[in-house]
Amino acid sequence: xxxxxxxxxxxxxxxxxxxxxxxxxxxxxxxxxxxxxxxxxxxxxxxxxxxxxxxxxxxxxxxxxxxxxxxxxxxxxxxxxxxxxxxxxxxxxxxxxxxxxxxxxxxxxxxxxxxxxxxxxxxxxxxxxxxxxxxxxxxxxxxxxxxxxxxxxxxxxxxxxxxxxxxxxxxxxxxxxxxxxxxxxxxxxxxxxxxxxxxxxxxxxxxxxxxxxxxxxxxxxxxxxxxxxxxxxxxxxxxxxxxxxxxxxxxxxxxxxxxxxxxxxxxxxxxxxxxxxxxxxxxxxxxxxxxxxxxxxxxxxxxxxxxxxxxxxxxxxxxxxxxxxxxxxxxxxxxxxxxxxxxxxxxxxxxxxxxxxxxxxxxxxxxxxxxxxxxxxxxxxxxxxxxxxxxxxxxxxxxxxxxxxxxxxxxxxxxxx
Length: 417
What we know:
By secondary structure, the protein is of the alpha/beta class. The protein is built from 15 helices and 11 strands.
């Protein structure tokens, strides 16, 4: 079949493309920006009329809509991208005589968020316009190593201490391979009355058990769990939602809190086999890669944040948190006194503050080299004029070895000059 796959550039779109092409079908990529021969450009924010879609359906036997967003960039994006554009596409399919249409929707809890409401509105439009041959496929959380949400939760699960919200619903993740297999099966099956088909995984799990299952996939031992009230997590989600790139926001937290489960029997019947269990989501050969990728997502922000804190707190200590008189006395062995000592102390404090700010805002190889050189200079000067700090019981200079290791790690991982 010639299949128009809308959202072919996305995580689900790429996975579906691979499965269908392997089965011998021809995929016509529906994408925002056409880059390959045969691509058909489309814009779900603006393509809201059936007349716009009709020319794109030439030589098409079936249509799959896999376009979706987790957060709005502009007000009304959910309504336009999840509902109005797909509804226009489904009306065009009806007019073009295309009955094989699959809408990749989403399974959700009883209380609809804006995201879920827009998805289910498109499902209703699908059934209204195409009474036969169409399916709204509603997966739960989809596991796939390339998926943004999977990467996020793997990174979260890899932390040695996990915050566990109290009293939230269960989750029932489904593997992306089961989703693509279900899509292929629906395309190749005889037409049936249009329907909504839930596609959860085989096991419903509490949040803590879910993250522990991901830890097992990564070959990590059980983590320490700290239970926290739902209200605290809700407040954290609101705060995280301020940042545009964050997957955690008020709506995604609400969906997670109310749970993401459904009856797995329909999916099992469709595939004529059990769906993949979460503990078998990844082969053992993939364990090292999953673990390294998960750790990489939070390791650099952690190192960068700790380094920035060291520089900024050092600047504050020099600026007055530590008694100024005692700070000036430490400069005496270097030949500074009076006004010169005050200027030197202010300059050192200002330089440390600049290093901390640049660590947060302008990280680069040049910055890490500069900080390593500056720290080495500070250390050598102190050993020269204040050798007692080298053998101090608190080991203030010895701790510079840990900071040097941190800088070397950042330097090794820096991709830009």
